Amino acid sequence: MPIRVLDEKTIARIAAGEVIERPASVVKELVENALDAGATQITVEVRDGGVAFIRVIDNAGGIASAEAELAFQRHATSKLTRIDDLERLTTLGFRGEALPSIAAVADVEMVTAADGSAGGALLALKDGVIITRTSQARSRGTTITVKSLFRSVPARLKFLKSTATENSHIAAVVTRYALAFPEVKFVLLSEGRTVLQTTGTGRLLDVVIAVYGAEIAQKMVAITAAAAGWQAGAPADISVTGMVSSPVLSRAGRDALHFFVNRRAIDSRLLTYAVEEAYTGLLMQGRHPLAVINITLPPALVDVNVHPAKSEVKFRDERVVFAVVQKAVRGTLVTLAPIPRIEEVGRSYTGTRPSPPIGRATWSSAPAPTNDSVASVPEAVQSPLSVSLPALRVLGQVAGNYIVAEGPDGVYVIDQHAAHERILYEKVKREKESAHIEVQGLLEAATLEVTPAQDMALRECCRELQTFGFTLEPFGERSYLVRTVPAVLSRGDWSTALREMLDCPSQAQAERDDSICKTIACHGAVRAGKTLSDEEMRALVRQLEQTENPFTCPHGRPTLIHLSKRQMEREFGRV
Ligand code: ADP
Ligand code: MG
Predict the structure, then answer these.
(1) Which residue has the CA at smallest separation from atom 1 of ligand 1?
(2) What is the pLDDT of residue 355?
(3) How far apart are CA 463 and CA 472, in angstroms?
(4) Can you tell me which atom of ligand 1 is nearest the CA of 99?
(5) Please, where in the chain does CATH 3.30.230.10 lie?
């Protein structure tokens, strides 16, 4: 065949094929346009799997009458003028290809009324050519009706699946955008039935209820602010919000994994992997979580122009995005759905005893300071070793978190978790230095499932962990039997502590030992919120008094605040 230039209609249909693959693609493009225009209400109606009829109605700003025709011209867009604009793009569309592509493969009718315009415009196109143009009344917004999709492209028509399958693709598109835009009211009518209706309240949970039902929604947890702490170290301008399923919930497929980058629905193997990684050890093999993951990052850090349907993106730094998502999800799961603990532990079965406290500054007999020299904690924190804690008389517990005590110079409020962390940290450190770690045998060996990365770390540091009291044996693929744990952790969350140690990158030996001591102390320490008996509080305060540095926890946060007599007098206007 000789080389020939294709006629325009053929060119348009070929180009349209890239963007409009099936009825759901039409729905996607029209919904994106409505969202870009600022709709708060979007109704989608389809018949015959979308092949016979698709209608999308929005209440957005509409198109000015004079521009209505332009909207159907290829590469005509109001969203971008220069290629550099892509770096600042906040809209879902940007190529000006959707409307002309749809018009190239279907009959299209558009009725649109712009803000402040007198009436609306009606435009009808067949084979990409305008056949009717008149005015028509309409309230603010746009209605686009698409009929006889692919009638002019029989090859494409043949490739479509059953009506039910096409309808389910359409429902998936609407569902995704409903999840991405909880503030928009979506209605999807399929073959005359309402199959999805969201409330537009702006709460993701409400959309999750509309999509998956209340029972499932109940088992979804929001990615928490606490988990945001897990994002530490990540660039401040990348954030992750959304909801993930608690480990009690799972699905056989990955259809309930939804990813949005700057509110654009995308497919991403990278992000799928990041989320599934976070569930390692929490779900049975072959099961998948539900997740709505919203990633917000500066448009310049993501290229949206890599796929004809705009359903894939390229991140400038994939590793960072992967890590941020993985940690946010893992952090949420760890905080809200703690890994089941082994509550029953037997008596310590190895004979090692903690070494007695080694020499340190005397404390209780130290003359109680009578002036302001230890009055304020910040001062004390600055030079913690210069002063020791006076003997304190416990008065009670406040808010399930704080022990209130009286000292020779006023009142002390002690953070029970931070204080206990300090006590355990020094204890573990002492025991480690003297190679006498007190260990606790588990009544029944417990299994620990780890991620591939943790597995590698564990292979390297198994012996080292043993010197801290963890006895682990390989037990199948990425699974270990835990036989003993440091005694300090026996009532704490040792599995989380272990995972945390395995997650922290290798450091110099001394630093590493120290950070292991901190992790053990943190997870062994009494939790904030736990009610303590008077006896327990007294014991905790006594032990705190005996530490080398009673004023801060191992992470440097204060363990107590002090309100001196003088401060009280000042506050009450007595001096
Ligand atoms: P793109 O979205 O890439 O700009 P489209 O072909 O999808 O290209 O749409 C062309 C233009 O038509 C848009 O840039 C927008 O200005 C206008 N438009 C399309 N749909 C709507 C709508 N529902 N409401 C308001 N304006 C719209
Ligand atoms: Mg568009």
Answers:
(1) 96
(2) 30
(3) 9
(4) 6
(5) 219-334
Number of Cβ within 10 Å of residue 212's Cβ equals 18
The CATH number, out of the four listed (3.30.1540.20, 3.30.565.10, 3.30.450.40, 1.20.1270.10), of the domain defined by the range 375-575: 3.30.1540.20
Strands (E), 343-421: 393-398, 402-407, 410-415
Q: Do residues 123 and 72 lie in contact, with contact meaning Cβ atoms separated by under 8 Å?
A: yes
Spacing, Cα 76 to ligand 1 middle (Å): 8
Residue nearest to atom 13 of ligand 1 (CA): 77
In order, the DSSP letters of 321-385 are HHHHHHHHHHHHHHHHSPPPP---B----S---PPPPPP----TTSPPP-SGGGTSHHHHHHSGG
Torsion angles phi and psi, residue 484, rounded to 5: -135, 155
Taking CA atoms only, the protein residue closest to ligand 1 atom 24 is: 62
CB 95 less than 6 A from any atom of ligand 1? yes
Per-run averaged pLDDT (10 residues), the chain, 575 residues: 83 78 95 96 96 97 90 84 78 87 94 84 93 92 96 86 88 94 96 92 93 87 67 69 89 90 92 89 81 93 82 88 90 59 26 29 28 29 47 91 90 94 94 88 84 83 90 87 90 88 73 88 92 92 89 85 86 85
Q: Give the chain's end-to-end CA distance (angstroms, integer).
A: 105
| Candidate from 25, 36, 44 with most ligand 1 atoms within 8 A of CB, to mutate | 36
Domain with CATH 3.30.565.10 in the chain: 8-197
Q: What is the pTM of this model?
A: 0.61
Output the CA 43–ligand 2 centroid distance in Å.
17
- Closest ligand to 141 CA? 1
Fold (CATH) for 8-197:
Heat Shock Protein 90 (3.30.565)
Retrieve residue 378's tokens: 């910040």
Are 425 and 554 within 8 A, CB to CB? yes
> Does the Cβ of 262 fall within 6 Å of ligand 1?
no
Alpha carbon distance 455, 446 (integer Å): 16
Give me the residue label for tokens 């919203």. 294
Residue 423: phi and psi, rounded to 5, are: -60, -50
What kind and span of H or E run contains 471?
strand 471-474
Give me the residues near ligand 2 (ion), CB cutoff below 5 Å.
33, 93, 98
- Ligand 1 atom with the shortest distance to the CA of 101: 6
Please give the Cα distance from 182 to 203 (Å, whole number).
6
Residue 74 pLDDT: 83
The per-residue pLDDT for 52 is 96
Two tokens, residue 212 = 């998956």
Residues carrying CATH 3.30.1540.20, the chain:
375-575
CATH says 219-334 is which class? alpha beta
Give strand pairing partners of 239. 296
Closest ligand 1 atom to Cα of 58: 23
CA of 93 to the centre of ligand 2 (A): 4
C-alpha count within 13 angstroms, C-beta hemisphere, residue 197: 4
